[in-house]
């Protein structure tokens, strides 16, 4: 999955770039106007393409009614803005998903679990971009515990649309060394 520009990946072309720019504006100043020149520059869309796409967004109710050439005003309370904003930053959702899955699928839960790589950094733009799990097995782990980790890795790969791999470490110090100071600790939380 493309975690860098997900709206453009979901809505290719003009629509995705325009939505990305409008969500960014909504996050910063939901009630302020946005000139067509600013929007054209932010979305990398020509003015001709912009008017057609804005017309469609107007039909959805995301922007206030306007005449051709007028500044764009968002409908700040529209139900879709929060969902669109969440799509632009999936990092926290990925972290929460991995935490929930690890707690549910790994018995007992890992003594330490951290994430690193392009997916958790939010820079993944291709399915081959990796999410790395760094795992320390609990001292009470059964012999087949790493098989459950491998199953979790396969499920996460499928659900995220990206390659997921795991590294096992004997303790949290070794796990932190694998993380090179950039890993996000998931467990213990």
SSE-based structural type: alpha+beta
Q: How helical, in percent, are the residues?
A: 40-55%
Number-wise, the strands total: 4
Strand portion: 5-15%
Taking all residues together, what is the mean pLDDT?
93
Q: How are strands sequenced across the largest beta sheet?
A: 3-2-1-4
Per CATH, what is the topology of the largest domain? Alpha-Beta Plaits
CATH architecture of the largest domain: 2-Layer Sandwich
Radius of gyration: 21 Å
Tell me the number of structural domains.
2
Structural write-up:
Helix 8 links the parallel strand 2 (130-136) and strand 3. The longest helix has 16 residues, at 14-29. Helices cover 51% and strands 12% of the residues. The chain has a four-stranded mixed beta sheet with strand order 3-2-1-4. The radius of gyration is 21 Å and the shape is elongated. It has 189 residues and is of the alpha+beta class. It has two domains: 6-88, Winged helix-like DNA-binding domain superfamily/Winged helix DNA-binding domain (Arc Repressor Mutant, subunit A, Orthogonal Bundle), CATH 1.10.10.10; 91-187, 2-Layer Sandwich (Alpha-Beta Plaits), CATH 3.30.70.1350. The protein has nine helices and four strands; from the N terminus they run H-H-H-H-H-H-E-H-E-H-E-H-E. The mean pLDDT is 93.
